[in-house]
Design a protein that fits this description.
Layout lengths: L2 H11 L7 H21 L3 H12 L6 E3 L4 E3 L1 H13 L6 E2 L7 H14 L4 H22 L2 H4 L4 H17 L4 H14 L5 H5 L8 H17 L18 H4 L8 H4 L11 E2 L10 H13 L7 E8 L1 H7 L9 H5 L2 H11 L9 H4 L2 H7 L2 E5 L1 H5 L7 E7 L4 E6 L12 H11 L5 H11 L9 H6 L1
Parallel strand pairs: 5-6
Antiparallel strand pairs: 1-2, 3-4, 5-7, 7-8
């Protein structure tokens, strides 16, 4: 028991210089990947609408709303930047937790670090602590939490955001415990129904978690108290893991290897702006197109063979009331878009692209099927096989067992630099390259404003 206290103690002990070099390297890479997603999300009108709403509040200019041209209060900056981290569904993720910690933790850490005048190194320390908290809680309730109707990016992410903010506010152990306790009380419900229905409010789950986490830490500093056993709960049965899981959570996951194994090393990054379950199919299509010159008109049929979870979660089309969220979670859509455009990024999510009759017609020729052999190796492998039947009788086949970005085939510095440029639209390349180098040396940066001004 006392899982909440163990996490608080861990956050207070964490020091950048004591972290393994690979952990420090991955933290810098994750920070750069976050900025790529901020740029990409601003291609969406809905993400821009959230940013403009927050601008209209005219709050105190404490921290940057990244790439939006204004500053606002730290909790609100966390809300905007968390929304931008999440919107295009290209955020980092934990396979065995179902969550995307970047969407809540990174914006919370950055907003508080800016507001409090912290260094790049202190920001990274807080970020690693927040990832650990969010990931371990998510791992403890996975998959029961999601099956109970919640999205852990918002719920579990709030705790990570609070932990990162508490660290930057120099809260002691009791203050950190209160911050975590308050976070549990303020955490968004993050209903999975929004995602499954394709509703665009889904993009706010990380931002709302970031806002709640930052608010929780500031309230703890102001003297507000929260239950120091918020995760495990008490005999009253009101703890986070007691009320958000239909079944028994595995609380040992919260403290197992704590301080020895860092879950940031288990993160995958995404080269494409779509649900991770679609990535094997997207990658297979793009690899085939590098080897064969195939035009959409030549394609008679596309068959995508994959594992059961992918068939259920992303095997469907767009539906009548489609949105970019529907597109992100549709293998038929992303495969058709990749075949036509030879890429899958922010541009493929725009309303004008989704409404293209040629894309819609090609999508109708894509079938998603369960493959029993691929199901047998899931979840160790999230494999997909794409088979293109061409009108001239040829059949092109490509299978991807482990999509790019997985820790077993990771995206490294150069991959993420390329993602920044690819997702940044028409922004000046030299400026983007300067930003990438700055972020990859973030632990040496004394003034975070130099980074946020460049974004």
């Amino acid at each position: 028991m006392e899982e909440t206290r163990r996490l608080a103690e861990f956050c207070l002990r964490l020091r950048w210089e004591d972290l393994p070099e690979e952990v420090r390297r991955r933290a810098r890479i994750c920070a750069l990947d976050f900025l790529a997603n901020v740029y990409g999300s601003l291609e969406l009108a809905e993400a821009r609408a959230v940013a403009e709403y927050v601008r209209s509040l005219r709050a105190a200019p404490e921290a940057a709303a990244l790439a939006c041209g204004y500053r606002t209060a730290a909790p609100l900056a966390a809300l905007v930047n968390g929304t931008l981290a999440e919107s295009i569904e290209a955020q980092d993720g934990l396979r065995y937790g179902g969550n995307h910690p970047v969407s809540a933790v990174m914006p919370a850490a950055l907003a508080v670090a800016e507001a409090e005048g912290r260094t790049g190194r202190e920001f990274l320390e807080a970020m690693v602590a927040g990832y650990e908290v969010a990931n371990r809680i998510a791992g403890a309730v996975h998959p029961l939490h999601t099956l109970s109707g919640f999205l852990p990016t918002g719920t579990c992410g709030t705790f990570g955001a609070a932990a990162a903010a508490a660290r930057l506010l120099d809260l002691d152990e009791e203050g950190t415990l209160h911050a975590l306790g308050i976070a549990g009380y303020l955490a968004p419900i993050s209903m999975a129904e929004a995602l499954m229905g394709g509703f665009t409010v889904k993009i706010l789950q990380g931002g709302q978690g970031a806002l709640a986490g930052v608010t929780a830490a500031y309230l703890a500093r102001a003297g507000i108290s929260g239950p120091p056993y918020v995760l495990e709960g008490s005999e009253l049965k009101g703890g986070f893991t007691q009320i958000t899981v239909r079944g028994e959570p595995n609380l040992d996951k919260i403290t197992e290897g704590l301080g020895r194994h860092y879950t940031i090393l288990d993160m995958y990054l995404k080269p494409y702006s779509a649900c991770r379950h679609t990535h094997g199919a997207i990658q297979a299509v793009l690899e085939m197109l590098l080897e064969e010159e195939v035009k959409a008109a030549e394609v008679e049929k596309v068959e995508v063979f994959t594992y059961g979870m992918a068939v259920v979660a992303v095997g469907k089309g767009l539906g009548e009331k489609e949105t970019f969220v529907s597109a992100q979670f549709s293998i038929p859509y992303v495969v058709a878009a990749a075949l036509l455009d030879r890429e899958l990024g922010p541009r493929q999510l725009a309303a004008v692209r989704r409404s293209d009759p040629a894309l819609r017609e090609l999508m109708s020729r894509v079938e998603v099927k369960l493959d029993e052999d691929l199901q047998k190796v899931y979840p160790e492998k999230t494999a997909s096989r794409v088979e293109l039947s061409l009108r001239d009788g040829r059949r092109l086949v490509r299978q991807v067992d482990i999509p790019k970005g997985d820790p077993r085939d990771p995206m490294e510095e150069e991959d993420v630099k390329e993602k920044v440029i690819r997702f940044a639209g028409d922004r000046e390349r030299r400026r983007l390259e300067e930003l990438s180098e700055l972020v990859l040396g973030l632990d040496r940066l004394e003034d975070l404003g130099k980074m946020t001004d460049l974004v």
